[in-house]
Amino acid sequence: MFEIFIVLSLLALGYGFGSYREKRHYQSIFRREEDLRDIMVFETRFPENPEVDKGGELVHGNVVISVDYFKMFVAGLRKLVGGRLRSYETLLDRGRREAVLRMKQEARAMGANKILNVKFETASVSQGEQGYLGSIEVFVYGSAVNA
C-alpha cells in the first residue's frame, strides 16, 4: 500500500511541477518569439537576391529538455495500447521553438535579419528507466544574412 502512495505522490508531483515549468517556458517562448519576429527564417538554400543579401555566417541554437515523471508514466501507458504520444509532442515543440529562438538571438547579435538554409537535428540524450525517453536535444543551424 505504501508503494502505491509513493507512485501516486510522484505522479502528482511530476504533473504539478511539470505543468508549471512547461507553462512558464511557453510564456517565455511566446514573449521572445514576439521580440525576435523581425528575423525571418527560411529553408531555402540560396538567397532570392544574392547582390542584396550580405553575410552568410553560420548561426546555431540548441537546447536539451528533460521529460518529467508524469509524462514518462503517461507515455508508458500509451505504449501499451498504441497511438500518439501527446505527452512527448509538447516536449519536442518546446525544444524546436527554443532552439530557433537561440539561433535568432545569435543572428541578431551579428546584425543579421534573415536566416537561410535552416536545418534541424533531434537526438535522445539519455534513456530513462526501461528505455523511456529521458531528455531530448534539438540543434538547429543556418546561414545568417543581412538584406
Question: Any key phrases for this structure?
Answer:
147 residues, alpha+beta, Translation Initiation Factor IF3, 4-stranded mixed sheet
Order of helices and strands: HEEHHEE
**Whole-number tally of structural domains:** 1
Report the CATH topology name.
Translation Initiation Factor IF3
Instruction: State the low-pLDDT regions, or none.
Output: none
First and last CA, distance: 66 Å
Main sheet, how many strands, which sense, barrel? 4 strands, mixed
The share of residues in helices is 40-55%
CATH architecture: 2-Layer Sandwich
Strand order of the largest sheet: 1-3-4-2
The structure class reads alpha+beta
The chain-level mean pLDDT equals 84
Strand content bin: 25-35%
CATH class: Alpha Beta
The total beta strand count reads 4
Describe the overall structure:
With 147 residues, the chain is of the alpha+beta class. It has a single domain, classed as Hypothetical protein apc22750. Chain B (Translation Initiation Factor IF3, 2-Layer Sandwich). Helix content is 49%, strand content 29%. The chain is built from three helices and four strands, in the order H-E-E-H-H-E-E. Strands 1-3-4-2 form a four-stranded mixed sheet. A hairpin with a 5-residue loop joins strand 3 and strand 4. The protein is elongated. 20% of the residues are buried. The model has no long low-confidence stretch (mean pLDDT 84).
Strands, helices and their partners?
Elements: H1 2-35, E1 40-41, E2 54-66, H2 69-81, H3 86-110, E3 114-127, E4 133-146
Parallel strand pairs: 1-3
Antiparallel strand pairs: 2-4, 3-4
